Please model this.
Amino acid sequence: MAAAPQRSGGAGRASGAKAKAAIPQLDWTAVRPAPVVLVSGPESLLAERSTRMLRDILRAEDPSLEVSDIDAGGYAPGELATFASPSLFGEPRLIRVDHVEKCTDAFIEEALAYFAAPAEDTVVVLRHASGVRGKKLLDALRGGLGGGIEIVCAELKRESDRADFVAAEFRMAQRRIAPGALRALVAAFQDDLSELAAACRQLLADTIDDVTEATVRQYYGGRVETTAFAVADAAIAGRHGEALGLLRHAIASGSDPVPIVAAIASKMRTMGKISGARGSSGELAKRFGLAPWQVDRARRDLQGWTDEGLGAVIRALADTDAQVKGAGRDPVFALERLIRTIAARGRA
Model:
């Protein structure tokens, strides 16, 4: 089977501990055929995507591909050898093994034996979400047993990781999305990667031109306008009335004060990091673990702010965070007071 060019980087890259592995550790978008493909990490949507992409690659090479599934948590001795055995007509095989983090001792033993001499024209995908179960097998595979690769599907916690995800969705579809549209989409679906992916699919399916910020607002306007980041943007820009209106609409729509405070805190922390920092957008992005556009946005947001104002808002954020998490009787009032302080750039 032909191997696709090796790529790396992007959202879900390997952690420092895993970087010592002898086998290639690739982003989910760079999946390619190999005797064994270890799909690791807790982000199930990325794992499903990479496994489906691999199936499509193999099926494009040979439509007679035979696909089999194994549950490692309920493994029956001999299953792997049976599915990997050559068929009468010699079709290529894809064996998908799920729940390796719950695997039986029999599976570990038989998998170690199999990967010492893997079958030809057979790709085995091992899905391991998290935990130490199966560590002996994973260590052997990462050490080179079976001549495989690892697809790292780490949780996309940072805004920059989710932005990379959206950019990859449009890049693979050979479509363009404007930077402002990308930011609006990420902000609107910041809490659920599956919803963000579904929004990308809808935009790709329903539009033929470049996706602009106006396009995103046309489809998800209500959600975009009431997002916590829209509240934060208006307050940081000093537009107190607009920020308060967005906040009250968000609360009336069922938004919880806690994630709103968290979103505001995220933007203020970024501003705090960039304040006074010298260097290009790329240099500061690398230093602080941000995307270059986040650095540029923080620099724009900082116009009109003083260090003393930033400090006052950060202290107000800490107090508001405690208030909305149970220390106060009226979390909405506490949040409105924070918005007023931010809109005054810490001077009130």
In short: The two ends are 66 Å apart (CA to CA). The beta strands are 25-26, 36-40, 66-71, 93-98, 122-128, 149-152.
